[in-house]
Specification:
With 499 residues, the chain is mainly alpha-helical. Helices cover 83% and strands 0% of the residues.
Length: 499
């Protein structure tokens, strides 16, 4: 866990810094200087591109993660053609998308034309956005494999948002005068981290472009095709499950892209809870793959329990702060966003459940029972689309959040059940229950009390009290040994410098 912890900490710094910049973009600049439809267009293009990029990666990313330990063990780097295989498949799929897009475009335009007409004029921009996301995803997974998770997270999470900020400022100050030009530039921004990461990977000389089929590929090709083919479907389903909400809102909600913009802002505020997982996954996945190769169930048990607990502690603390500061968000965004309170609460509970059940999906994905992960993804997509479609038409964006909550509860319960039944692994202890009880009680009590008439002073007092009380209890009662250890290390360094 020491390596995972170190990489997670540095990655989290960049991701949180990037999130802060992204929050400034999403919560202030976009709502203030763009119409809800213009802002909503950036979100819907990204969601469509995410789905298409998963199609174009064709299941190669989980294949690279699962089988790289075998390539590394049995082949010298001069004969390791895994990177070449992944890049070739991604390139061929992107070419296929480009050639077939004229057939797909009319169908999409008919679906969105009534409620989201602005999308009709810019739908073609999903092509460059998709291609750049495919390239970044493939390079990112090999950066994880060789231990460059910090660099990958810096480029994707921090630098990209800096570039977005610069483009928004160019729009605000009139350097970019037309929205059509702005959205065109926006669609190509991911190519910047792609170019930089490509250069770094070439300079590292860890991987070579090898066009000769190795003995490992000959031996494992059947298993790789079977595994990759299943995850080609599974990953598409996973992304559809995560992005269908905004797409359904844009096509079915009466507000169209305007409602999609409101939902996006609420979702963005909640995704700050995702940061620890995004940094932890990139560091933990290679170790999970290695543990499965070595059949080290004890190591998997430690990873499962520690990641679940640490994610729950951090996520519960973040959710408490977010809920306490909802009045501030509405104050900044304006009365048009007043309905976000209940929306954010429901989305926050959904995210807490998802994070609190740990890395169940990744453990299943890299195991010999990976089909369970595939089938649960399929179930999640079907149930979330049905619930989101029905509840969005009936209750608007609040119905979308409720549908997502129900789907996530069912999804994670099924995964938890199978991991417990097959491997005897489960991530919970008394520490998880104490975390939820403490965070929930502190949030409820502080939310109910008014310390000052001025909203900003009141919220500042509540936030400070919550951070101090929650941190004290977590460390004092050693709720998370990893967090306690980090605190003691930081305290020792401060005391040494002060002496």
């Amino acid at each position: 866990m020491a390596t995972i912890r170190k990489q997670s900490i540095y990655s989290s710094i960049y991701i949180y810094a990037g999130f802060a910049i992204g929050a400034f973009n999403v919560l202030f600049l976009f709502p203030k200087f763009f119409t809800p439809e213009e802002f909503g267009l950036t979100r819907i293009l990204m969601d469509i591109a995410l789905i298409l990029s998963m199609i174009c990666t064709a299941g190669t990313i989980p294949v690279a993660l699962k089988f790289f330990p075998f390539y590394k063990h049995y082949l010298p780097k001069e004969k390791n053609e895994l990177l070449t295989l992944v890049l070739l498949i991604g390139t061929l799929m992107c070419v296929l998308l480009y050639l077939t897009f004229p057939l797909i475009e009319p169908i999409a335009l008919r679906k969105f034309a009534d409620r989201s007409p602005i999308l009709s004029h810019h739908l073609r921009l999903v092509i460059p956005l998709t291609i750049s996301l495919v390239a970044l995803s493939m390079l990112e997974v090999f950066a994880w494999i060789i231990g460059k998770t910090i660099l990958a997270n810096f480029l994707k999470e921090f630098m990209f948002r800096i570039v977005v900020l610069l483009v928004i400022l160019a729009w605000i100050f009139g350097i970019i005068k037309e929205y059509a030009v702005f959205i065109e530039i926006y669609a190509y921004l991911y190519f910047i981290p792609v170019v930089i990461l490509s250069w770094v990977m070439v300079r590292s000389q860890v991987f070579k472009l090898v066009f000769k089929k190795s003995t490992v590929t000959r031996k494992l090709s059947g298993a790789m095709v079977k595994f990759g083919g299943a995850y080609f479907l599974g990953n598409i389903l996973n992304v559809v499950a995560k992005t269908n909400d905004t797409i359904i809102i844009a096509s079915q909600s009466t507000g169209g892209l305007a409602d999609a913009a409101i939902f996006t802002i609420a979702t963005y505020l909640i995704t700050v809870m995702d940061v620890p997982q995004r940094s932890m996954v990139s560091a933990a996945l290679p170790q999970i793959a290695q543990a499965w190769k070595d059949k080290d169930i004890a190591k998997l048990d430690r990873l499962y329990k520690k990641t679940a607990l640490n994610l729950l502690v951090i996520a519960a603390g973040i959710l408490g702060l977010v809920i306490l500061n909802i009045p501030a968000f509405i104050q900044v965004l304006g009365p048009a966003y007043a309905g976000m309170t209940m929306l954010m609460f429901i989305l926050g509970i959904s995210k807490l459940i998802d994070l609190g059940t740990g890395m169940n999906g990744h453990i299943l994905q890299l195991s010999k029972h990976w089909k369970i992960d595939l089938f649960t993804n399929m179930f999640f997509v079907v149930i979330s689309i049905i619930l989101n479609y029905w509840l969005t038409r009936t209750y608007g964006i609040l119905g979308t959040a409720i549908g997502s909550l129900i789907a996530i509860i069912l999804f994670n319960f099924i995964r938890f059940y199978y991991i417990k039944k097959i491997y005897g692994l489960q991530p919970f202890s008394w520490r998880n229950g104490v975390t939820l009880l403490v965070a929930g009680t502190l949030t409820f009590v502080l939310y109910s009390i008014a310390f000052h008439d001025f909203i900003w002073v009141n919220l500042a007092i509540k936030s400070i009290l919550f951070i101090l009380a929650f941190s004290f209890i977590v460390i004092r009662f050693n709720v998370s040994p990893d967090i306690t250890e980090l605190y003691n290390m930081a305290r020792s360094r401060v005391m040494r410098r002060g002496s």
